[in-house]
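Section 5: illustrative case.
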């Protein structure tokens, strides 16, 4: 059986802003080593599915480079490939108008080959899955379409697309974020949440997408339009993801799936990795998570005396990082990070390339990204975000529930506070209080800059 994988990696990721300001959401770094797309690609490769197209659109350069550096096959086998496919307006003047339209605009990739099944998966979820088990379920049910579904508490299901099934797991209804979610048969306290992963018989998919493209009132989305229309007249089934088993899976990880679509969800998924018995175990060699190789040295921990001991406890520290007399605890630290003497990083997420000076205190759900530099004696405490190529001056304090971002303005306004022109630097001893509307302010400023440049 010939199987084609098509990964939808073109989402803008606006809810994950500002991490997605310079890159597509699937290319956002995760877990001190990986990119978000690595998880679905690893599931495909571990499941022995080797024909894969990755559909891109917004800010795709970083993602394309990552695929080129880490996800290449030999040219000897023509049906073994992982290829990025940029949006090309093949069917008209519009870019992708929805998930179904993204596949429709690339139907030539399916029609030109003899594929039996087409797998359409998202690119930005954290989970392990043996996709062959879902394929076997699809074949056993003689389905036209199968959607993967996760049982979740019914009182939490209103935030998801909810699938209603009968006792045979055949889909008999679908609602997007319903106020009163339908329960799973025999499980009155649970509902099936759609994971946005689909298996189609290839000929059925082609026929369905041509029909959907002709509908003027369609938003061309697999969940909102395709699924809600075809289950009434075709064989559509929900695959229970909680029954999926991969080698080395712990009891704690059964059914683990995270949609990291928001900053809070992204933070929580990173923190799931750090414990002695983590909810998601990166060290499961039976179902490894692969990524592009890092051409640099391993992590290093130096100095060993009271008040100046380089150490990490209940934490993940990425390659090339140096913990030089500081402490990292209950945190995830990315690649090429420097933590200097006397500094403490506690319950925080530090992404690639950040430099933390002497005696800095970074504690309590702090996130730092974008190769920022914190000079000596900086204090960040309690739900603080620092994102951008920024320098925070000596002795500065940024209060809880605040955020500092690099602006696109060449004169650089950071959180509404003027930084030194062209250097993106906050002066020494600055104190920033709560800025609850920071995201809206940054977006508004960038829109004004964009409009000015276009005019």
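Designed sequence:
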């Amino acid at each position: 059986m010939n199987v084609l994988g098509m990964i939808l990696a073109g989402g803008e990721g606006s809810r994950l802003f500002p991490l997605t300001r310079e890159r597509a959401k699937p290319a956002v770094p995760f877990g001190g080593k990986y990119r978000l797309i690595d998880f679905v690609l690893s599931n495909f490769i571990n499941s022995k599915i080797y024909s894969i197209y990755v559909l891109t659109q917004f800010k795709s350069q970083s993602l394309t480079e990552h695929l080129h550096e880490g996800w290449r096959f030999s040219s000897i086998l023509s049906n073994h490939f992982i290829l990025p496919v940029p949006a090309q307006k093949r069917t008209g003047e519009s870019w992708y108008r929805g998930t179904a339209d993204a596949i429709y605009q690339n139907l030539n990739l399916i029609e030109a080959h003899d594929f039996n099944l087409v797998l359409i998966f998202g690119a930005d979820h954290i989970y392990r899955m043996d996709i062959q088990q879902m394929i076997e379920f699809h074949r056993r049910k003689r389905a036209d379409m199968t959607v993967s579904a996760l049982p979740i508490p019914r009182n939490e299901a209103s935030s998801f697309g909810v699938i209603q099934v009968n006792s045979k797991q055949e889909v008999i209804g679908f609602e997007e974020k319903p106020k009163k979610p339908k329960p799973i048969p025999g499980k009155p306290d649970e509902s099936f949440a759609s994971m946005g992963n689909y298996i189609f018989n290839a000929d059925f998919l082609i026929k369905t997408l041509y029909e959907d493209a002709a509908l003027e009132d369609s938003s061309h989305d697999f969940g909102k339009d395709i699924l809600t229309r075809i289950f009434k007249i075709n064989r559509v089934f929900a695959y229970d993801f909680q029954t999926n088993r991969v080698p080395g899976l712990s009891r704690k990880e059964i059914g683990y799936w995270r949609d990291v679509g928001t900053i809070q969800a992204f933070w929580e998924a990173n923190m799931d990795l750090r414990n002695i018995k983590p909810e998601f175990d990166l060290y499961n060699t039976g179902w490894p998570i692969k990524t592009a190789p890092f051409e640099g040295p391993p992590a290093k921990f130096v100095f060993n005396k009271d008040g100046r001991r380089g150490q990490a406890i209940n934490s993940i520290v990425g390659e090339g990082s140096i913990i030089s007399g500081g402490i990292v605890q209950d945190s995830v630290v990315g690649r090429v990070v420097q933590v200097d003497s006397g500094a403490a990083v506690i319950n925080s997420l530090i992404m690639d390339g950040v430099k933390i000076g002497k005696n800095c205190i970074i504690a309590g759900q702090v996130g730092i990204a974008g190769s920022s530099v914190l000079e000596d004696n900086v204090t960040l405490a309690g739900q603080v975000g620092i994102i951008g190529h920024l320098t925070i001056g000596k002795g500065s304090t940024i209060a809880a529930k605040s955020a500092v971002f690099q602006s696109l303005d060449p004169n650089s306004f950071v959180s509404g506070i003027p930084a030194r022109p062209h250097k993106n630097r906050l002066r020494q001893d600055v104190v920033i209080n709560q800025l609850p509307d920071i995201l809206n302010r940054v977006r508004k400023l960038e829109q004004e800059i964009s409009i000015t440049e276009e005019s």
